[in-house]
Amino acid sequence: MTTINPSVNKIKNLITRAKEYVIELFSTPARRRIAIFYALAILCALIFLFPPFWMLVTSLRTTKDIYQIPPTFWPSSITLENYRYVLTEMDGGLRYFINSIVITLSTVFLVTLFSAMGGYAFGMRKFRGKELMFMGVIFVLTIPYIMYLVPIYLIEINLHIRNTWLGLILPYIALNLPWGLLIMRSAFSTISLEIRDAATIDGCNEYQLWYKVMLPITKPALAATIVITFVFVWQEFLFASTLMTKNTWQTIPVGIVWLRDELQTMAYGRVGAMFILALLPIFIPFILLRNFFVKGLREGMLKG
Q: Which is more confidently placed, 155 or 220?
């Protein structure tokens, strides 16, 4: 008498359960629509995630493994040589990261601070010319940001701030502040006036009302402002390549192009390592603030 392997029974049970689940999933039109929606969402996610995944795999390959014929999907051996080259041997490689970190964090901090202050004024206070000033902010958003490049370039030549951190921080603040004001103004305008009146009766002055009462309520909008500003500044290329002409002041997006020119070829492994190192910091604030980010966009922009 032959005995059936227990693992075979487990596989058969899993297949049976999977069939039952699929049948139940498509049992009604509403469930079919939901299943199709999630299937399309998963497909789109896989399409967008495959390029960075492939760059990660490529960055861990040796040069010989990358160019071998026939090509393989998984690397035959994993190496960190490409990352070591980018961080230690590449001309200015570490400097690119330092420049990007300083410029991005400074811009995010100042944009968030000014947006919170200006959004409070636009959303909760009444003063002459408020609507006209806010219409000016909206008007700035309608102009493509590339239109500001030449005027900013000429201004920085006269002020002698090209090839400095300040030469990028100031334009980035100007480009991102209108978005921050729009989000924060909409977030503050949704707060009930009874909260402000209660805080005023309890003895809060204007600063305490803004910092201790109103600002904690608008954390989701603050998170949305931080993430949007961080992503824009970290990946911006046009202003960084035009205003920073010296290699020692370049940021990571420009550094990737410099890496290609330095090697005089498309060294896929080293370029892939540079891409992965450039992408990682973008995921950090989004993962930490993802719940606040989605809620902030919903409350800060849709309810405004």
A: 155
The DSSP annotation for the chain comes to: -----HHHHHHHHHHHHHHHHHHHHTSSHHHHHHHHHHHHHHHHHHHHHHHHHHHHHHHTS-HHHHT-SS--SS-SS---HHHHIIIIISTTHHHHHHHHHHHHHHHHHHHHHHHHHHHHHHHH---TTHHHHHHHHHHHHTS-GGGGHHHHHHHHHHHT-TTSHHHHHHHHHHHHHHHHHHHHHHHHHTS-HHHHHHHHHTT--HHHIIIIIIHHHTHHHHHHHHHHHHHHHHH--HHHHHH--SGGG--HHHHHHHHHHHHTS--HHHHHHHHHHHHHHHHHHHHHHHHHHHHHHIIIII--
- Report pLDDT digits (tens) over 158-215: 999 998 999 999 999 999 999 999 989 988 888 888 888 888 888 888 888 888 888 8
Two tokens at 214? 């109103």
